[in-house]
């Protein structure tokens, strides 16, 4: 279901809000699952009051287990230590604009705006998005790094809208470089650094990026080894569409205009998206300023008329005569992927993990407390 349809249903649900219980009562009715969240909110009356004043919203409420997982995540603890303002961003990202019942969400992905508008974390018009989609009886929300949070109990009404209990805290989408490294797109990360495009692309608003996989770069390694910096920049810019939030559910057969004014040809066949000769193999990786689609080939700006044949077993090569290399190009200076639990391999009794967990506990208190000072209700 397209977002426009969801919005219509959301608005229709708002009319009955006055007959619902307040937020506190709604949370307490699910005390066995939301006692951690409910207790934290009771300890912060000003924040609870602000949340209670919201209307026509959907709150994705992390369960007790989800909050405990956050407490045990040393990576989150270190993030909050380095950037205390991130706690407000995390909280805002769990509040969706509009009242969305589970029955409104279908197997067609919808990209729903949230209250996260702080440009330090989100540079997309209307607020950072969460992807909502149903698979069978499971309703899921996808956040940064395509992290999946499943709804374990849906449609808890309150005067401001509806609450869904989720089994994992949403991950606020990161910038392009951090996301590329975490998603094992190290060739993209390295190429951006080598071409000096990182800053420009990070600062752009509403971008759609078609990011070749590491294998895609390796497959044409012989060509890439001889590129000048300007040639590399030209190839990379051909993968970028500015001023367009091209989520998979909004892409259509036709063309998109790149940041350099050239055309990309989009073909959609049986739900699979092709761009020129390349196939999208991982869609809708949310980043701070837009969306990334991972593709299986590097696009060639010298072949702007290239169009996929979706029924063919292989596509025409974008770079004729290119040969593959064993080492992935552009990766020599790329930091290692550290987007894993920092506590892996540490004994729970070690002082390192204990300190990190204590920090996470402080962070969680800030998440549901001090963050109220900077929220824009």
Helices and strands in order:
Elements: H1 3-14, H2 23-28, H3 31-42, H4 45-53, E1 57-62, H5 64-71, H6 74-82, H7 86-93, E2 95-97, E3 110-113, E4 129-135, E5 138-142, E6 148-158, E7 161-166, H8 176-182, H9 186-195, H10 198-203, E8 207-212, H11 214-219, H12 221-224, H13 229-237, E9 240-241, E10 254-257, E11 263-269, E12 272-275, E13 278-287, E14 290-295, H14 351-367
Parallel strand pairs: 1-7, 8-14
Antiparallel strand pairs: 1-2, 3-4, 4-5, 5-6, 6-7, 8-9, 10-11, 11-12, 12-13, 13-14
Q: Can you characterise this structure?
A:
This protein has 377 residues and is of the alpha+beta class. The protein has 14 helices and 14 strands. The chain has helices at residues 3-14, 23-28, 31-42, 45-53, 64-71, 74-82, 86-93, 176-182, 186-195, 198-203, 214-219, 221-224, 229-237, 351-367; strands at 57-62, 95-97, 110-113, 129-135, 138-142, 148-158, 161-166, 207-212, 240-241, 254-257, 263-269, 272-275, 278-287, 290-295. The strands form two sheets. Strands 2-1-7-6-5-4-3 form a seven-stranded mixed beta sheet. A seven-stranded mixed beta sheet has the order 9-8-14-13-12-11-10. A hairpin with a 2-residue loop joins β13 (278-287) and β14. The chain is elongated, with a radius of gyration of 22 Å. It starts with a helix and ends in a 10-residue tail after the last helix. The model is unreliable at 12-18 and 340-377 (pLDDT under 50).
Largest sheet: 7 strands, mixed
Give the strand tally.
14
Overall pLDDT score = 85
Terminal residue distance: 28 Å
Task: Please name the CATH topology of the largest domain.
Answer: FAS1 domain
Number of helices: 14
Instruction: Report the uncertain regions.
Output: 12-18, 340-377
Organism: Fusarium agapanthi
GO biological process, one term: macroautophagy
Domain FAS1: 21-170, 172-299
Pfam families: Fasciclin (PF02469)
């Amino acid at each position: 279901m397209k977002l426009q349809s969801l919005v219509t249903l959301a608005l229709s649900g708002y009319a009955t809000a006055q007959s619902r219980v307040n937020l506190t009562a709604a949370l307490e009715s699910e005390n066995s699952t939301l006692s951690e969240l409910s207790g934290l909110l009771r300890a912060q009356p000003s924040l609870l009051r602000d949340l209670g004043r919201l209307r026509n919203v959907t709150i994705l409420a992390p369960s007790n287990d989800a909050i405990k997982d956050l407490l045990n995540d040393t990576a989150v603890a270190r993030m909050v230590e380095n950037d205390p303002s991130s706690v407000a961003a995390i909280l805002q990202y769990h509040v969706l604009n509009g009242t969305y019942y589970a029955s409104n969400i279908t197997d067609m992905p919808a990209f729903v705006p949230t209250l996260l508008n702080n440009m330090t974390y989100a540079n997309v018009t209307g607020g950072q998005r969460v992807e909502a989609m149903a698979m069978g009886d499971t309703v899921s929300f996808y956040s940064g790094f395509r992290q999946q949070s499943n709804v374990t109990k849906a449609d808890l009404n309150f005067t401001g809208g509806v609450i869904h209990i989720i089994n994992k805290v949403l991950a606020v989408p990161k910038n392009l470089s951090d996301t590329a490294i975490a998603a094992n797109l190290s060739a993209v990360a390295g190429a951006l650094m080598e071409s000096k495009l990182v800053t420009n692309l990070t600062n752009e608003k509403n971008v759609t990026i078609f990011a070749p996989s590491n294998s895609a770069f390796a497959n044409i390694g012989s060509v890439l080894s001889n590129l000048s910096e300007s040639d590399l920049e030209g190839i990379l810019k051909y993968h970028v569409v500015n001023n367009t939030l091209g989520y998979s559910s909004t892409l259509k057969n036709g063309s998109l205009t790149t940041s350099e004014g050239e055309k990309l040809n989009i073909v959609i066949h049986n739900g699979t998206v092709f761009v020129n000769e390349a196939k999208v193999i991982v869609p809708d990786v949310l980043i701070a300023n837009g969306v990334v689609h991972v593709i299986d080939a590097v696009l060639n700006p010298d072949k702007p008329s290239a169009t996929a044949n979706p029924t063919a077993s292989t596509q025409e090569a974008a770079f004729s005569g290119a040969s593959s290399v064993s080492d992935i190009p552009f990766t020599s200076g790329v930091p290692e992927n550290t987007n894993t639990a920092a506590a892996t391999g540490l004994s729970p009794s070690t002082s390192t993990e204990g300190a990190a967990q204590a920090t996470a506990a402080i962070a969680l208190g800030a998440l549901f407390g001090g963050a109220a000072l900077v929220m824009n209700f």
